[in-house]
Amino acid sequence: MDFVFKMAVGCIAAFVITYILLRLLPGEKVLLGHDRGRKFAQGSEVNIGKPTGVGFYFILVFLAVSCVLCFLINPVVSDKGIFESGNVVSGLGFGLLAVLAEMVTGWLDDRSKNPWNEYVKGALDVAVSLVGAFICVHFFGTRVYLAITGTYFDINPVLYYFLAVLLLVVSINATNATDGIDGLSGSLSVISIVATLVMASLAGTCFDSNPALLTAAFVPALAAYLIFNFNPSKMMMGDAGSRSLGFFIAFFLILCRIPFLYFIVGLPFLCDGGISILKITVGRLTKRKIILFRSITTPLHDELRKNRKFSVKKVWLTLVLAALIIDLVYIFASVLLRVTGVV
């Protein structure tokens, strides 16, 4: 079966199955919760009562289609001698299981009558990240490439492990905090994964077809969800979606051996949700003696809505355009360096 045809089949399957599930919401009363609103979140009251936790559906579709594409239709055979193909296959399988675990923890919180304690959720995020980082180090190695130049270096395994844990935890929480505006977190996730695949291809770090196949399953599933989540939204992804998306973005960067690219593709998440997490963390650690970004309402999308009087659609457009510009400039710079023979 031609590789392009396989990707096309995967794209269509992921989109159609996700769309049908979200259109029908089978088992809604048992599987889903309903949005409770977010304390201190600007405009969150309009979402109260909407089905939440629908990330349960699109993450399961993404994982199922990914497994079919990567393990059944197109089993990976590495064409590089750096990594053993068996290790890559095992690492990918365990990594997808970790995405599932992160989704389940978020989903259980979404459907609970009372929201879980944030420390409990934080501990679960750390636990899944500890396992995820071990999978990455053990199966993918510790060689890191710079996407803009393609140069590489090896990091001490212990240091790399702790950096991987940090990346996973930050990505989970920044993506989750960004999920406060209709369509925003899903749109930024799609952009980040596509940009990562493009940069990995340019840097030559796609040692097999897995990243392309994962993207073929991921993007259509999110696109189907966004049909129902654009303003005015009909449903919410909940922690089941946002936390697992954050984990997968970080895992995908590590799989492509370009984890430091998160400072580019993840910059919108860091600027929007990340500063909110940093502000809260520093405030609690210092018992509110140090308050960062005192004059800014966080997350940034709340600042734009509350203080700058942006509409929901304008906030979405502003942050999505910023993400596209950042990624395109970086990709253009990378291509220019190669064309001019600098790298």
What's the short story on this structure?
The chain has 343 residues and is mainly α.
Notable characteristics:
two-stranded antiparallel ribbon; two-stranded antiparallel sheet; 13 helices; 343 residues; mainly alpha
* Uncertain regions spanning at least 5 consecutive residues: 78-86
Overall mean confidence score, pLDDT: 90
Question: Roughly what percent helix?
Answer: 55-70%
What's the tally of helices? 13
Give the radius of gyration: 19 Å
Strand order of the largest sheet: 1-2
Provide an overview of this structure.
- With 343 residues, the chain is mainly alpha-helical.
- The chain has one domain.
- The protein has helices at residues 3-24, 28-31, 55-73, 85-111, 118-140, 157-178, 184-203, 210-229, 238-255, 262-265, 267-285, 300-306, 312-339, and strands spanning 33-34, 51-52, 143-145, 152-154.
- The chain has a two-stranded antiparallel sheet with strand order 1-2. It has a two-stranded antiparallel ribbon with strand order 3-4.
- A hairpin with a 6-residue loop joins strand 3 (143-145) and strand 4 (152-154).
- The protein is globular, with a radius of gyration of 19 Å.
- The two termini are 36 Å apart.
- Mean pLDDT is 90; it is low at 78-86.
Question: What is the strand and helix layout of this fold?
Answer:
Layout: H1 3-24, H2 28-31, E1 33-34, E2 51-52, H3 55-73, H4 85-111, H5 118-140, E3 143-145, E4 152-154, H6 157-178, H7 184-203, H8 210-229, H9 238-255, H10 262-265, H11 267-285, H12 300-306, H13 312-339
Antiparallel strand pairs: 1-2, 3-4
